[in-house]
């Protein structure tokens, strides 16, 4: 038995910013990725896969910038088994204090024949060459056999052994298509420990997709059979049905340490915050009954449950809401609160804003306090998230007035500032939202298509702020814009304008040459 099996520590490898961002529509911009990476580091994530540097300039920049900022977590960049990919990843990771190159190639018969059109001998050589090349550039190298769970066992063992001999320090076994089951996946990991002679020289990792809803169960089965790294994503984001959900893996280890005697070093109280941030920036709503982070995950509706909870919370609660950072949204500042109280409240909520951003957020808070009786923590988070999103915007919403009702078409009068010039228009539409968006299109003509329009309430009550997400798509690339306001139409306009601003940044940054490399 290897030392890995004796150690009870499970490393958490987060791929929200790489595999997560690969889900159609879940694009994030650089600022959003940095904010997510910072929280992931604060919460104790061991490895953060920040992107696939050869895929686009945006991915390169994300890995590079995150590498400059993080001090504790290892920053990882993905690369195919190709010299140029690996060099691009190494270049992006240069500033990182702790860095890892993750290189992969398909090993299943199906993928080798149809996707790669390579024979197994050449694939095996590519494994050796790519890992050696990566090790020339970085001491920490992870290798993955893509479609690992549908790979023939003899070939899997051979490639894993070769990768370790070539210098891989982590061997990650992907269930790329989410096809495996817990028994089967656990046996696969166990088989590697039995048959690969040098397996003790690497950490074995799991990377399970959720096509059959088994990603977390498969990952835990992997751990029970010797894996000591789990790859996962916040809210289970990822290709198709997603990756194993970070919060579910972590809370399973935490809550069932009696039968899962392994430990992660994650500070679980950050879970709710990171989940909310990922959901807001991607526009991927968390379903109400989602484990750990769904709105109902800690709600007790049935009378009999409520009665039990009053007598002893353990009757129906296997973990506390506080353990995942879910605290009752507190009534906070009022109309008369000053800047100092506002700043310290934001610090308490984990925000460290510059003077200008504080000033803008404070003005928004005062405006909100004039319109809304009670202001909760969640209101402040919405204001600050909204304000932070708007730095460096080329297009700004100055004012708007919408006429709606049962008669006539709805009309929106709108004033925008575009690159410093004020422009105004009046437009009609089928409903007030349509009229508002038509007015924006009138002032800033564009061909982007609206793919998503989503509204949710930040707190309860009819005076609650609306949080709106708008997804726009142009040339196959999508962006998500957000806006918050007590007026749903103002929030909608802000979200649309935010999406347009992101699109403009994306247009500047997309380099067709890098994308097709
Ligand atoms: O699902 C997968 O196989 C991957 C690899 C790149 C690890 O994401
Ligand atoms: Zn994957």
How would you explain this protein's 3D organization?
By secondary structure, this protein is α/β, with parallel strands linked by helices. It has 19 helices and 14 strands. The strands form 3 sheets. The chain has an 8-stranded parallel β-barrel, surrounded by 8 helices. A hairpin with a 6-residue loop joins strand 9 (395-403) and strand 10 (410-418). Helix 7 packs parallel to helix 8 (153-166). Zinc ion is lined by residues 19, 174, 176, 207, 209, 239. The site of zinc ion has 6 residues, from loops.
Radius of gyration: 25 Å
Classify the secondary structure makeup into a structural class.
alpha/beta
Instruction: Tell me, briefly, the overall form.
Output: globular
Binned strand content: 15-25%
Measured between the Cα atoms of the first and last residue, the distance is 43 Å
Count of DSSP H/I helices: 19
Low-confidence stretches: 511-517
Helix content: 40-55%
Say how many strands there are: 14
On the 0 to 100 scale, the average pLDDT is 91
Q: What small molecules are bound in this structure?
A: 3-methyl-2-oxobutanoic acid, zinc ion
Assembly classification:
single chain
Lateral strand order in the biggest sheet: 1-2-3-4-5-6-7-8
Largest sheet report: 8 strands, parallel, barrel
